[in-house]
Every structure is written in structure tokens, then in C-alpha cells.
Design brief:
single chain; 291 residues; mainly beta; five-stranded antiparallel sheet; five-stranded mixed sheet; 40% strand; globular; binds copper (II) ion
């Protein structure tokens, strides 16, 4: 199965400053000290996606800093489901007060454990602290869900991760082979640059449609691209936003999107680029080893 992205019409509007990844920083965005950085001025008190505690990469823990990701149904049937969960705070009660990060109070990423499927959606919060989103997970298998959140009382962003199983006969597949070119509908995206364990590097992603460079990318959640990087084997999570932002007078709307990226260690990584063009968000996925 190929990479899939749900498109949410609510994602279409722009907002202020996207985050920037720091060279030399080790993989995630968003320790509390990053919150003071000028690039984060648009998100007071919140540092960004993928933050972690204790020096661990994001997404590896179901509970962190007192906050716990509680899935209503960690085992579900294939097909369309109303996926529900809550974030429980240090007192055990569902959290209802969040600081928005990139226009959303919560970003939900769902990936197959083999990294052959990927969804990035934005659930709705109800007053009792339950998050709900319609998901279409067509195939049986092992999935991982990630929530990027900044509970207001925590004052920073964390990424919690939990397993989700979809019932049925399941034949595990290998992680897709390493490749620097990815197709998404009629778009071809090429990746230049390397992943180096523990070192910040520049990745450049170039978007073409029917062979022609795309120069009118549309902002998606205030950036021309969002890059989620997952490590094969443990699904360590990195979420990176590009250098420059729409409307800053410097950043071109394609065909190139550049990211300062660092990964937390050696391994095989799967990179998922969300980009928006023609009012549709598409995902291009690459596999790249960290050298
Ligand atoms: Cu999101």
C-alpha cells in the first residue's frame, strides 16, 4: 500500500511563524529553551513538535512529563472508524487546555509500523477532553499513533506515542527500499542532502509536477512543507519545519523546500513530506539511511 494523507479543509488557512530546525541539535524540535528563539516568536511559550524529555527522541513513550496518551480502543477493525483518545494529565484527568502549535492544538500522526502508510490529521476536541477523528485504516496491521501537543500547564511541546492494532490477517512487509525520488499523484519529489546521526544537515526537497518545477506551492499549516521522519524499528519521531515561511519576502513557494534536519542516531529513516498544491495536501515518502 502506498502512503496516504488525509486532507482536512481546516488545514488550509495560514498562520504565523513556522519552526526552524537547528543545525547541531539532535533531531527533534522543541526543548523548552528553544521557545526563546526568535523563530518561535509566533508560538509563545511553546517550542514546537517532537519535543522530548530525558534526552529521548520523541514519540517513543506513551507517557511523558506526567501526560499520557489513552486510546479509547487500541484494537480496532479495518475500514473507516471514529478514532477516539484522550490526553490524561498529571492528575489523571483529561486535558482540555492546550496551546496551539502550527495552527492546531493537536497534530495526530498515524503510521504503519513498517512505515508503508502515513496519515496526518487534526482531531476535534470535545468539552470532556475526548479527541475524535475519522480515520480510514483499510488494512490489518500494526500501527503507531503520535500526538504532538503542548498542554498549557506543561508549557512545552511533547510527542506521545501509542500502538494501535487493526485486526485481521496481517503479512508484515519490509520498510520500502532507500530512494531519493518519490511520487505523489502527478508530482515527483526529489531529495538532496544526507541524514547524519546527531548532526544537523540541510535537506532540500524539490517538487515537480508533470516534470515542471512547482513554483506556487501553497502554505499548509503556515509552511510550504512539513517533514515527519520516523526511524525503522522503533519509530523514533522527528517533526521538522522548513527554513523560511510563506510571506516572509524571502522564501520562494517552491520548487525547493529546505529543512535543517537532525536525526537521533544511526538507522534507516522514512521521511514523509506533506505539501499543498492545487488545494490538495499530498505526501511524498522517502527512505534514507543515516550515515
Ligand atoms: Cu498537523
Amino acid at each position: 500500500m502506498t502512503t496516504q494523507t488525509r486532507t482536512n479543509p481546516h488545514d488550509a488557512h495560514a498562520h504565523n511563524a513556522p519552526h526552524d530546525q537547528h543545525a547541531g541539535h539532535h533531531g527533534h524540535i522543541g526543548d523548552a529553551d528553544h521557545g526563546a528563539h526568535a523563530h518561535h516568536a509566533g508560538h509563545p511559550g511553546v517550542a514546537g513538535h517532537g519535543a522530548h524529555g530525558d534526552g529521548l527522541p520523541g514519540g517513543l513513550q506513551i507517557t511523558q512529563d506526567g501526560y499520557t496518551l489513552a486510546l479509547a480502543e487500541p484494537i480496532t477493525a479495518p475500514g473507516e472508524i471514529d478514532f477516539r483518545f484522550r490526553i490524561l494529565g498529571p492528575d489523571g484527568a483529561p486535558v482540555t487546555d492546550y496551546t496551539a502549535v502550527h495552527d492546531r492544538e493537536l497534530h495526530l500522526i498515524v503510521a504503519r509500523r513498517e512505515l508503508t502508510g502515513f496519515w496526518h490529521v487534526h482531531p476535534e476536541l470535545t468539552a470532556d477532553g475526548t479527541w475524535t477523528v475519522r480515520l480510514q485504516l483499510p488494512e490489518a496491521g500494526a500501527y503507531r499513533v503520535f500526538t504532538d501537543i503542548a498542554p498549557r500547564t506543561l508549557g512545552k511541546t511533547i510527542t506521545l506515542g501509542a500502538d494501535l492494532a487493526v485486526t485481521g490477517a496481517y503479512e508484515p512487509k519490509p520498510t520500502p527500499a532507500a530512494a531519493r525520488t518519490a511520487l505523489a499523484d502527478e508530482y515527483t519529489v526529489t531529495l538532496n542532502g544526507d541524514l547524519v546521526a546527531g548532526e544537523g544537515r540541510l535537506l532540500t526537497l524539490t517538487v515537480r509536477k508533470d516534470g515542471a518545477p512547482v513554483t506556487d506551492l501553497q502554505p499548509y499549516l503556515a509552511a510550504y512543507g512539513h517533514l515527519v521522519i520516523l526511524r525503522a524499528g522503533d519509530l523514533a519521531y522527528v517533526h521538522v519545519h522548513p527554513n523560511g515561511e510563506p510571506g516572509d519576502g524571502i522564501t520562494a513557494a517552491g520548487p525547493e523546500i529546505t529543512f535543517h534536519t537532525a536525526v537521533p542516531g544511526p538507522g534507516i529513516y522514512r521521511l514523509f513530506l506533506d505539501f499543498r498544491h492545487g488545494d490538495v495536501v499530498r505526501t511524498a515518502a522517502f527512505t534514507l539511511p543515516a550515515v
